[in-house]
Amino acid sequence: MNTIILKFGGSSVANDEKLNLVAQKIINLYNNNNKIVAVVSAQGKTTDHLISEAKSLSICPNPRELDALVSIGEQITASKLAMLLLAKNYNAISLTGWQAGIVTDDINQSAIIKSINTSRINQELDNGKIVIVAGFQGVNSKNDVTTLGRGGSDTTAVALAAALNSKSCYIYSDVDGIYTSDPNKVTNTKKIDEISYDEMLEISSEGAKVLHNRCVEIGEKYNIPIIAKSTFNDEPGTLISNKTQIEGTVVKNIVKKEISRLSIIGNGFMSNNEIYKKIMNIIEKNNLDILNIDITRTKIAIVFKTVVDNTILQELHKEIIEQI
Ligand code: ASP
Ligand code: MG
Fold it and tell me: Rounded distance, CA 120 to CA 253, Å?
């Protein structure tokens, strides 16, 4: 039997109605003869609320206690989802990070996973149970709760996929997959069907809040295809894997980080300067002053001396993604 790892983000589990949809998705996959491990985030804005509650008590909350507090968000979702599945007569169990065997280092709020002891999860799966794991958390060597950093449930999911030798990891959210740019800043963005780990890592590291960059690194290290897709439709989503095209230049994404840094992500930039020329033309036409430019195999990153308007992002998107 195949073990499938699913991860549901905060907006996918925000209320009872959405939890029901998630439960149904899990049931469908389970009925197709799969073992299911579902990793969940905190519901909606729960983590933000917990952090602001902590900050209203203390300007600089104690890091150990802050992790003890914020980790509760994911635990609420996990137990609710397990309860819902049980009420629908499906055998499910929720596990916290430590019950799932996730051991981290001691760095509160940005802990790194050191090891995963999968014996409890495997035992539950072998008993036919659907296992729901609270994302974003683990325990350190003192058994204190730690968290993996904002967005860390993605990392929990891919790390579990690696530890359980799963063939793929599905990251469900409220968007259809990874887009060519931020749809809130650029019109005519398109969903990317396939992207390499390297390219995805650049997109995540340049600040696009689509996937936790550490989950992409784990995916690459253990060669686990990651599929980013929507909880609310059956579109195929974006496949993140080690597949790359043999030759040629393809621009996959444009991302703006902070106010004056733009990164163009894709492949083949070192051996083809057509894209570079197009970018430079747009920059010259708009009289923008460059402070620094960095070109690698997968990225052209430009830092400007002044604030870059989203219209530049739009123009670049039009010229080097839409028209190619
Ligand atoms: N709930 C955590 C956050 O909001 C972790 C996650 O959702 O992945 O950052
Ligand atoms: Mg996220």
Answer: 40
